[in-house]
Amino acid sequence: MTAFSRRRFIVAASAPFAVAACGNGVGSTGGGRIDARVDEATNFMYDTLPETQTLASKSAGVLMMPLITEAGFGIGGGFGRGALRIDNVTVDYYSSTNASIGLQIGAQQYAHALFFMTPASLNSFRSSPGWVAGADLEYAVSSNSGALTTDTTSLLTPVVAVVFGQAGLIAGATVEGQKYNRIIP
């Protein structure tokens, strides 16, 4: 591999990560800007998915990630920043990152909220040095009518994820594999 082709490969491989960081508060004015975005995303979620108010009222805490940007061309990545709120008060700020390799092309943006339904799940999240969303998450899936399932099973699950506000060229969005780290904005 020549130096020119290596350079071209490195630029092409790193481009999705540069695009993923755009518009996500990197270099922002800090916590105030993140809180404003979290407020907007929360209001949008409550307006479009009113059942999420039930989840919020019964949860020990809510991590709102108001804007996740993902991009990929074979190699992909995503980034976003948000806030953990307990009793509707911000207690910590978090970043979310993910990386993927495989058949993919395009970009998308979306928001998501993690509802910690038990104090134990919230404590586990807050005490971990880097929490990774796994396959054990319960998704409150939106039906065609725009309603979420907030049945007893969802309310007893330790962590419930709600993905909303999708826009872009990659079909589907999931929080599985997202890594969350506490940050100081």
UniProtKB/TrEMBL annotation:
Residues 98-179 form the Ysc84 actin-binding domain. PROSITE patterns: PROKAR_LIPOPROTEIN. The keyword Signal applies. Pfam families: Ysc84. This is Twin-arginine translocation pathway signal sequence domain-containing protein. The lineage of its organism: Bacteria, Pseudomonadati, Pseudomonadota, Alphaproteobacteria, Rhodobacterales. Keywords: Signal. InterPro entries: Ysc84_actin-binding. It comes from Jannaschia pagri. It comes from the Bacteria. Residues 1-20 form the signal peptide.
